[in-house]
Structure formats: C-alpha cells, structure tokens
Amino acid sequence: MKRIIGFSVIAVAIFMFSCNTNTDEGIDIPGMSDEQTLKSAEITVAEVQAEAAVAECNYEVEFFANAERILTRWWQMGKFFGWHNKLRYFENQCPDVTIDHSDSTAYPLTITLYYGDSTVLNNGKVLSGEIVLVISAPRNSQDYSRLVSFNDFMVDSMLINGTTEVIVDKVDSTFRKFESELTFVYPDGTTVTRSAERVWQWLAGLDTPEIQSDDVVIITGEVTGTIVWPDGTEETYSKIITTPLKRLAMCRYMVEGVVEVRIDGNLVSVLDYGYNESGEECDHYALLSTNAGDEVIDLSEKHYNGMAKQYQYRNQHQYTGENGNQNGSQNQNNNHNGNG
C-alpha cells in the first residue's frame, strides 16, 4: 500500500491540477481604470522579484540544513566549508559558515551563513548579508523543525528581513513547508510586508545533498501582502499559485507555473511562467494578463514598462483642447497616438 503523506492535500493539488489553467481559456478580469490596471501589473512584477528572491533564500536554507551532519563533522575537525565545482556559487565564491553547539549531540543547533558584501551565484544573482538557521532537534526526531532569520540579507539589490519556519514532512521527506513573515525593500524604496505559506517538493536532487545543480523543485501555496509605494500609497493583495511553479536550481526565475493576483478579492492579473520565448531552459519571459490584455514581459526588468503603463501614459497625454495645454486642440490628432 502506498504511504499517506502528511502534505497529501498539497500533493493532490500538485499532481492533479488542470492543464487548462492558462490564458487561452479566457480570464474573467473585471474592468478597471488605466491606473488600477497599471497598479495590478506593477504588483505582479514586484511579486515576481519577491518570489525569485525567496526561492534563493529557501534554497540556501535547504542546502545547508541538509548538509548539517557533514558540516558538523568538518567543524569538529577544524575544516571549513569552501567552494567546489558542484556548488551553485561562482568560482571561489561561497558564504562563511559557522556552527554553534556545545557538543556533537546538543540541540538546538545554530548555523550562521554570512555572505559578506557580495557572494555571486552561477545564475548571476548576488547574495549578501546574513542567514541564521536554528535547528530544533535531530533530523529523525518528531520535534524537528527549523527557524530561519534573515538579517539585512540581500538578493541583488533587494533587502530582506524577517523569519521563516520550515517543517519537513515526517513521512515523505521530499516535502517542505515554509511559513514566512518577511519584509522586502526594493531599490526604488517600495516596501512589501509579506506573509506566505509554501510547500516545496523535490522531484530530483534531494538524494545528492552535496550537489546543488541537479535540483528540481515544484512549489505550491499562497501569499498575502501589503505593498507601500515610494509616494506612500499602499495596496493589500493576495496571490495564489494555481498551477505549481517549477524551479530549476541553476535558473534565475521559475520556468513553469501560473499565479493569480487579487486586490480586495478581485482577480486583477494572471502570470504564466510557462511562456517560453527564447526556447532556452532558463527562460526569463512570462505571459502577463491584465485588463489591458495579454503581453509578454521580461522577468529580468527591474521596472514594469508594459502595455498598461503605455495605455495610462497615452491617455494622460492626449490633447483635448480643454486641459489648458498651450498647443490647443489643433495638435490633438497629431499627438493622440504618441507616448509623450
């Protein structure tokens, strides 16, 4: 008889989701103003960046927690963690690792990862700051859990502070549950306070803890967040993964999956990571659907410059002859289609 896993509901969601969840079926997004459409798109893009950063954080936590035993043995022998070519760090780049316990059997065990001002990954991302893992008990214990603190930790130029609790399924060890309360500060001053519940399942790579490059993970879960823009305005939003996200360890962004973003309970955008414009394994494009329509966005862009922003900008700069513009109505037709 097959074993019943602790996260069975999530497992069913992962393996039985409908393949028809895509933009081809049509998305019932209610009518919104240009400004609302733009805000919904910008929230979605901000979430893309947060999701990518969280994935890097969680991946670091998983690797070093899984390597706890060998790291402890090395520490007792006076050996230290260092770079080798099976890791995902750029050549000769890796964090400083310290382990704090009184003897080999004492728990809680604290692992501190210090990335300094710049630790570069093979996928181009740059990590800095500190992560602290507190492991409660031996791995085979029913009391095993991890509390993770991010202390002025940065992924590229995004600042992250807060905590995550990680629970490993006691029956099927390929599952992890991440419950997090994190604050993100973006380079332009935008701040996101974000509560999330995630379930990760390893499809490959978990049996090779010393190798990072072969991991394949699928992710499900939900997010609620409050985003405060540089001008002080704010929105509360939620996000749900409707088709599991797929993460390849060496890629900067998710390569598959669909997420929906809602404001005040209303669906405002759908993002499909499965759109692949380049044909490369680590693609950085996705299909964004808003009230303005469907458009391909570049996930590597730091700011949203898509269709909704163009529509809003165009409408704000139409010449009607009634807005006091010195050019008057005579230039209305000549400038109507311009972007300013």
- Report helical residue fraction: 10-25%
Q: What's the shape?
A: elongated
Mean pLDDT: 79
Task: Find the structural class using helix and strand composition.
Answer: alpha+beta
Q: Provide the succession of SSEs.
A: HHHEEEEEEEEEEEEEEHH
Keywords:
alpha+beta, 14-stranded antiparallel sheet, 14 strands, elongated, disordered N terminus
Question: TL;DR?
Answer:
This protein has 340 residues and is an alpha+beta fold. It has 5 helices and 14 strands.
Written overview of the protein:
There is one protein chain. Strands 1, 2, 3, 4, 5, 6, 7, 8, 9, 10, 11, 12, 13 and 14 form a 14-stranded antiparallel β-sheet that branches. The chain contains 5 helices and 14 strands. By secondary structure, it is an alpha+beta fold. Residues 1-26 and 317-340 have low confidence and may be disordered. α2 (34-66) runs antiparallel to α4 (307-316). A hairpin with a 5-residue loop joins β9 (216-228) and β10.
